[in-house]
Amino acid sequence: MAAMLTGLAGRASAAPIGTVSDTGFEEQNSRTISAPWSGEGPDYKGIDIDLGYHKTGRKNAFIRTSSRNWNAVAQKVTVKPQTVYYLEGWVRTSGNYTTGYFGARGTNGRTMVQKNYGKVISNGAYQFLHMAFNSGTNTSVTLYTGYYAPGADSWVQIDDIALTDTPPGHWAGYAVPSSPVNAAPHAVTAVWTEPSVICRQENPDNHLSVWVGLDGIASSPTESLVQVGVHATCRGELYPQHQAFWEVINAGVDTREQPISMVVYAGDRMSASVVRSAADPANYILTIENLSRPGQRQTLTKRAPAARSESAEIIVERPYVFTLDSTWPKTVNVPFSYVTVDGAPLSGYETLPFQGRQNDTGTVYSPSPAITDSGGYSNFTVSSHPG
Asked: What is the C-alpha to C-alpha distance for residues 291 and 278, in angstroms, rounded to an integer?
């Protein structure tokens, strides 16, 4: 139902302000880095083409060296002054250094924002890097991904660098991405109280989905998203319909929302989980249960061979279904409890919060900033607030 945090790709000749050109290096036509990208430092760097090292697409940038030099892949991007931007990207490293840096410099060459990366917690996993910064008086910034080499053979693979001044607006909740401090997650669980959705003539397009999933941060033609939850809809109805569902976006092919036979009403306590099989990593076990109604439990096994388990999500969403004009309900309150990722509470991870917004009303939908833990589980609430 939702891939997100995907960069806005643009051609080098006409990239909109604040947009990275050739965000996934797919327009690079040789092993040598070319415009709009450039290299920093004296050592070996270039483009991998159809080598299977990419995060998405067919290509990625790389740096490989045995020196102690600084090397980076960079791009100068035009920005609007005094504007908050959201920078993100993915890296995979050799794991034998801790001196990798991802960030942005101003026109004076000074670092404006920077995140450290390098160590590997889950071998072979890409790490998600993200941050927000204000452009200040700058009309351009230089984005860079690089590292100071450790004097031994080392490398980094780089993909999907993106910059936008608009945060995602259709998700609210938390994700746990594979990162310099998080292992790549393989399981996510949560319990929530199914929200009430008011259906009125003036709000025929109100939709709200509550779900848990793996790999939701970046699904693409080479990746997957696996999710299970409940979708409440007002489409053409006086009263809301609550439908349990599963969905797999498998290497760019979307099953769309598939119904699960289960009785669900507002106020019911729902439990859901997605677990990547240890015996067969292409298999995902999806379980959903209505704790308020005995006998209402379903477990499904779905194959997603392109999934990489590089993020876990606990999300309330204004879904893209039926129409792109679906709306958030005016009032939302979804308490989550018994939340775990790989069996541990969220306090053990670097979490990525999401905040939704209904543009015409200005209403903001966000998770409580303080996640509370008890008994090895986490609790938080997604609720609506005036903008």
From this structure: 27
Cα 27 to Cα 21, 49, 320, distances in angstroms: 9, 11, 29
pTM of the full predicted structure?
Answer: 0.85
CB 163 within 8 A of CB 142: no
Has residue 321 got a pLDDT over 60?
no
Question: What is the chain's Cα-based Rg?
Answer: 21
Q: What is the C-alpha to C-alpha distance for residues 287 and 263, in angstroms, rounded to an integer?
A: 15
pLDDT in tens, 163-188: 998 776 789 999 999 999 999 999 99
Determine the Cα–Cα distance for residues 266 and 297; give it in Å rounded to an integer.
Answer: 17
What span, in angstroms and rounded, lies between the C-alpha atoms of 365 and 386? 9
Residue 117 to residues 21, 105, 151, 261, 382, Cα–Cα distance (Å): 23, 17, 17, 44, 30
> Tokens standing for 277?
């099989």
Interatomic CA distance for residues 103 and 77, integer angstroms: 13
Q: DSSP strand E in 20-166: where?
A: 38-40, 45-49, 59-65, 70-78, 84-93, 100-105, 111-117, 127-134, 140-148, 154-164
Longest dimension (CA), the chain: 68
Residue 93 CB: number of other CB atoms within 10 A?
22
How does DSSP assign 175-220, residue by residue?
EEE--SSSPPP-EEEEEEEPPP----TT-TTBEEEEEEEES-S---
Sheet holding 127-134, edge to edge: 45-49, 59-65, 154-164, 84-93, 127-134
Place of tokens 């543009």: 359
Average per-residue pLDDT in the chain?
89
